[in-house]
Amino acid sequence: MTFRNVIVCRMVPGSEQTVADVFGYYDRTTRPQDLGVVGRTLLSFHGLYIHLIERNADPRVTGQTRGLPAFQQIAEQIAPYVTPYPRDWKNPSDSVAKEFYSWSPAGPPAAGGEPSRTVIVARIKPGAEPTVAQIFAESDAGPLPAMMGVTGRWLYSIDDVYLHVLERVGEPFDGAVEQRHDQPAFAKIMDDLSPYISPFDPDTWGSPLDAVATEFYRWRAED
Length: 223
Fold this sequence. Notes:
Elements: E1 3-11, H1 16-29, E2 37-45, E3 48-55, H2 59-62, H3 71-78, E4 82-84, E5 98-103, E6 116-124, H4 129-140, H5 144-148, E7 150-158, E8 161-168, H6 173-180, H7 184-193, E9 197-199, E10 214-220
Antiparallel strand pairs: 1-3, 1-4, 2-3, 2-10, 5-7, 6-8, 6-9, 7-8
Helix pairs in contact: 4-7
């Protein structure tokens, strides 16, 4: 089982390559896997910095909560570009989003190769996490996940930010959405979520595809 942490901060627009270079250097020259980290993905979305950290064990059990031996050096080097998002931020743990729902299908893994990952970003109504989790639980018990090729789903929130990490096999995510957005099951969950989930930036939102974060760095341990 893979354990994920999701860190959310603000990010200076256009600084993606600089931040990626910092992590690339330390991921090459140190061994994050010695601290239990087996993968990381960095994404950006409308001034947000999103950092997905994957571990091979629960850090609450192992006590290995930092992602790299050079944690302090990285923090100092990215400080001009990455700043806290939460209004009441006091320490780095305040930037970790709270997981409030996860789902994976029962039975053997779906055929179709390595799952692709999509991160959807929106705003969530304060306190709506239990309701949103229930909406997805009901939907995931139906035909929509198989229809969309979904092999895993994790929902997170931090302040007013909603993050939907989706793993799936098959055609690209944009193609799946375009082909199935008129399906009753897809339309129903969108309608059910609408009182609680809204576009992060309404001025630029035209379809669900406009909520997808852009990946700018990925690393995985080879041993």
